# Entry
Amino acid sequence: MTDPKAMQELISGFQARGVEVISSHPRCNEKNLYGLYIRGSREIVVCERGDQSYTLRHEGWHLVQSLCLQGKQWLTSVAIENDLDKQDRAELSLFVRMEGWTKEAEARVMAKKTPKQYFEEFDSACWQPINTNEPYIQ
# Structure
């Protein structure tokens, strides 16, 4: 279930960092899609289902991975391993190719952080302007 307070804090935090959070997108018609990061943009789609605050953190981290880290791993492999639960491990092994495993696992770990912890990591990872045409405001 979505925590409305956390969701509002997250939306405000993303907006302050120049990231648009979209709740209506044609792909939200896909039954099992909770959200997505629109690659190469500053847009995150969060569909109106599931824990939207989790989805926003998860998809937001894919934005960080793409635009700020240029695909590099942020968390250590040990930190990722320690913070994945049994369900995450099962889903990752079933649905994620090996070459994308670390990025997806890292996004799941980041999605479990509090908004405060999340944006501390976000700001550390995105210490310079986000790699798009628009300037990053921190």
Summary: The radius of gyration is 14 Å. The CA atoms of residues 11 and 115 lie 10 Å apart. The first strand starts at residue 20 and ends at 22.
